[in-house]
Amino acid sequence: QVQLVESGGGLVEAGGSLRLSCVASGSIFRINAMGWYRQAPGKQRELVATIISGGSTNYADSVKGRFTISRDNAKNMVYLQMNSLKAEDTAVYYCWCTAQPMGSMIPRNYWGQGTQVTVSS
Question: Residues 39-60: what's their mean pLDDT?
Answer without folding.
Answer: 96
